[in-house]
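Much of our argument rests on the idea that a fold can be written as discrete symbols. The amino acid sequence and the backbone structure tokens for this protein are reproduced below:

___
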Amino acid sequence: MRHTLGQRLERFNYLDVVLWLFRIGIIVVIVWGTVATILDNPYSMRNWIDLLLTGLTQGSLYALIALGYTLVYGVLLMINFAHGEFFMSGVFTATVFVAIPLNEAGLWNRHPIPCLLLVTVVAMAVSMAIAVLTERVAYRPLRRAPRLIPLITAIGASFFWQYFFRGLYGSGITAFPTVQALAGKWTVAGLEIGKTDVVVMISSILLLIGLYIFVMQTKTGKAMRAVSEDKDVAALMGIDVDRVIVITFAVGAALAGAAGILYAMLYRQVNFFMGFYPGLKAFTAAVLGGIGSVPGAALGGLALGMFESIAPNLFLEGLGIPGANQLKDVVAFTMLVLILMFRPQGILGERLAEKKA
């Protein structure tokens, strides 16, 4: 009996108790703030709908960027922290060399759709080129190295591309031309929705569906899934692993380049640092949805966007925290901590075997 009691005491971990108390405390604080806000009712239904639409728009962008993280992780089991710079490089280059000259020539508002398509294609092409170059120069030689080394290399690549484009285009903010055809709002079911917001959401949904079909239905997509399971076995089956990895980087970067144009249409400015925070938030979205899962990245991006938009007003206001609207970044990164505490594998993620994790 004493031996059994001793074994139980050895298994009893006081740190686990403290961790669970901390988790319960977080839930209590969130519920308390939410109930206080609901009872106080400081916002109208229209305000909540506007916040929800803003969250969906933001979440659509996060989802597109998060797909790059989840694709690379699914194939290489590597977190590519330079992905935010792939997002920045395409839209910055397309703005300087295509969008601004078209606007100065008077073509931007006379032919908005062809101009936007041209700018998007250039942004996607530049992002793909930067991603493929980074993979070939920085990541491929380290493919068999311990996983910490590629991670540090990715952080270094991120800083390199940031300051490369700072030196190339300058450190100031460059204005993205306004699309007059998308100015104003549409009225849908009695709700006023910004035209740009609608374009961002619809474009994101179409790109997400296109990627899912590509990964699940095409021969290349099946090869990507095979490489993600076991590179050596995939190579024995005749799959060119290096080619599949390059395609993975290119596809993820192309989606980031398209997201960059949508981001610029929404916020109308670009700079060399613009990929840092969206990149980190997209990584948070990928972890939230289940990194390595394409549907998970999409779901995580949408969830993070809505949480970031609604949460400061929903429970931080109820806690009496001043300037709650200025705490969106804090909310996003707090969400990352909570995910790792409560469900590290994410919403749609699976618990991995030790050798894969």
